[in-house]
Specification:
The complex is a heterodimer of chains A (about 260) and B (about 325). By secondary structure, chain A is mainly alpha-helical. Helix content of chain A is about 75%, strand content about 0%. Chain B is an alpha/beta fold. Chain B has 13 helices and 14 strands. In chain B, the strands form 3 sheets. A 6-stranded mixed β-sheet of chain B has the order 6-7-8-3-9-10, with helices on both faces. In chain B, helix 4 packs across helix 5 and helix 4 runs parallel beside helix 6. Classes of the chains: A mainly alpha (about 260), B alpha/beta (about 325). At the A-B interface, helix 1 and helix 5 of A face helix 3 and helix 4 of B.
């Protein structure tokens, strides 16, 4: 068997195993979906009137804020599901099963590839579920063309891939599931200090760089632009660069830790 | 020795090596703690070899190195004709590992674990199902096959672990403490399974801290202590290494005890217990000599027992028992 077909075959076996875990224990994934959904409902129904007034000026109604908020919530959903990835990778590494895989003549990268592909699929599915909640409470894409829809979907997938690789690295270096979920907290925390809830220019000046120089803000602005027709500007390239950079970094990090001798 | 033992090593495909596992001078340290301090092994194909030693002797580290899980700091080894460093995937294809560090996936069922192994060994779907079902039945796991493995008992997990190892039909199996923590019944079941494997020509490297297990299963035993092999041989050869065989006489009458002690000058005398220990191997000749001398003195012992050294004696003599390990090395040298 050529090494490529070996890689594909073993990776898809590992992917099936990870999806089986997710299907057998959906509570972890569902719990992680709860945070973005609750934040979405809270900000729309409790803070919605004030936020809308802040964004659209006088006369703007709640739906203006729903439109503003949903893209950020979608990306936040991705951050949340990848915390689950860190936890399950860490669980896997502390169980003996991965030691068994290492002593088998299988494609070495397939263990991580299985986790990554499974996690990206879960993230995309989660985005669809949370997106459906958004639509249910009134979110509508105003002027997206088919091409823009594809671009939005591509951006979400690429973003999920980037965060997943980082989460896999975090899971690899965490000695326990608890440590993994703590180490992965930035993936939940970063969107809270991005432009997901309020625009950058509404933030105090000293805070703005924190929101600006991180992956969530350009990705959120790009997604908004694609779905709602707001200006994207240089955010599109920035978002793609962040995603590619994080993916490459997370990939190298995870691979290096995986190739190290276990104790 | 290495080049002599393994002439086939350079062409593993044309002439199969007579040894399933050979290792020369394996060394490994973690930080400044030396775990393996030059291990030499030669395990003939189709035999059972036991690595016997106390906790921390380096047994698991040896298995981890030979199964390609961790690299050695020094020395070299071949497993199934493949070099650990230059052909790790060749080694992996030849071996199966079961034990302490290897394990099952607790989140999925026993059957799913088996099918996972079948998929990773690239068995066709139908054959994978057949092999999985066969092994589950053979290891008495058919009833629980559809339950998550995390709920299995220790013995069941160990059996599933071994069943998963056998999916790929490996010719060399590493069993790292396969019965540690098992109840006596599960232990005997495990022993039966190992004997079956050996009957099929599989080479087994077994680590254990139980002497009876090594005695029971192994063709050859290496006693490992403080990262060195302190003795190697068959169980019988090892037992011959240590003196400790003796004939013990017990008396109820102190006068008889005194008289016997006078007649048997080489006896070790215990006045409190009223016993005598006469060194000897318990052969008919020694026994007759003792009895003749007792008859001549006109005394009769109330009880006579012959004690031959067992592996416990060997183990304690070689590994220094509760005393610090540096004494052990003096014993070796």
């Amino acid at each position: 068997m050529s090494s490529l077909s070996l890689a594909v075959r073993d990776s898809s076996t590992m992917l099936r195993r990870n999806l089986l875990h997710a299907r057998r224990y959906p509570s972890l994934t569902l719990n992680l979906l709860l945070t973005p959904v609750v934040l979405l409902l809270l900000f729309v129904y409790v803070f919605g009137d004030v936020m809308s007034a802040g964004i659209g000026g006088a006369g703007a109604d709640r739906s203006a804020y729903v439109a503003y908020l949903v893209p950020g919530i979608l990306l936040m959903t991705i951050g949340g599901t990848t915390v689950g990835t860190a936890v399950s990778v860490s669980n896997d590494m502390t169980e003996g099963i991965v030691a068994r895989f290492r002593t088998m003549a299988i494609h070495r990268g397939s263990v991580l590839t299985g986790h990554v592909v499974g996690s990206v699929l879960q993230a995309v599915l989660s985005v669809v579920l949370v997106g459906a909640v958004g639509v249910a409470i009134g979110f509508r894409s105003t002027d997206a063309t088919v091409l823009e829809w594809f671009a939005a979907f591509g951006l979400l997938t690429l973003f999920a891939l980037a965060l997943t690789w980082i989460a896999v690295g975090m899971g690899m270096v965490s000695p326990s599931a608890e440590a993994a979920s703590n180490n992965a907290l930035p993936l939940i925390f970063l969107p809270l200090v991005s432009s997901a809830f309020v625009p950058l220019d509404a933030m105090p000046g000293w805070f703005r760089p924190i929101a600006e120089y991180q992956p969530f803000t350009p990705a959120i602005e790009t997604l908004r632009g694609l779905l709602l027709g707001t200006g994207i500007g240089h955010n599109g390239w920035l978002a793609v660069a962040w995603c590619l950079g994080l993916s490459a970094l997370g990939h190298r990090w995870s691979k290096r830790v995986f190739d190290r001798d276990p104790r | 020795m290495p080049s002599f033992v393994m002439p086939a090593s350079r062409k593993p495909d044309s002439t199969p090596a007579p040894a399933a596992v050979t290792a020369v001078g394996l060394r490994k340290s973690y930080g400044d703690r030396t775990v393996l301090d030059g291990i030499d092994l030669r395990i003939p194909a189709g035999s059972v070899f036991a690595l016997l030693g106390p906790n921390g002797a380096g047994k698991t580290t040896t298995v981890k190195i030979l199964s390609t899980l961790v690299g050695a700091d020094g020395g070299h080894a071949q497993v199934g004709g493949h070099d650990l460093v230059t052909s790790p995937d060749g080694v992996r294809a030849a071996i199966g590992v079961t034990g302490q560090f290897s394990a099952v996936d607790g989140l999925i069922t026993g059957e799913e674990n088996m099918l996972l192994m079948a998929d990773l060994h690239h068995l066709p779907r139908g054959e994978g199902r057949r092999v999985a079902a066969e092994l589950l039945a053979r290891f008495d796991l058919a009833e629980v096959a559809r339950k998550p493995a995390s709920g299995y008992s220790g013995g069941m997990k160990r059996r599933l672990d071994l069943a998963m190892t056998l999916v790929g039909n490996p010719r060399i199996i590493f069993l790292d403490e396969p019965t540690t923590g098992l109840d006596p019944r599960s232990r005997h079941t495990m022993w039966g399974i190992v004997r079956e494997l050996v009957a099929q020509g599989v080479t087994v490297l077994l680590t254990t801290q139980y002497l009876d297990e090594a005695d029971e299963l192994a063709d050859r035993i290496a006693v490992l202590d403080g990262g060195r092999i302190v003795a190697e041989g068959t169980a019988e050869e090892l037992k011959r290494l240590v003196p400790g065989g003796h004939v013990r006489l017990r008396f109820t009458d102190p006068a008889a005890h005194r008289a016997a002690a006078a007649a048997l000058a080489d006896a070790e005398r215990d006045d409190a217990a009223l016993t005598l220990r006469i060194p000897g191997d318990g052969s008919q000749r020694t026994l007759r000599a003792i009895l003749d001398r007792l008859d001549a003195a006109g005394v009769e012992a109330d009880e006579l027992t012959v004690r031959t050294p067992d592996l416990d004696d060997v183990f304690f003599a070689l590994t220094g028992g509760p005393t610090p390990p540096h004494r052990t090395q003096e014993v070796v040298r």
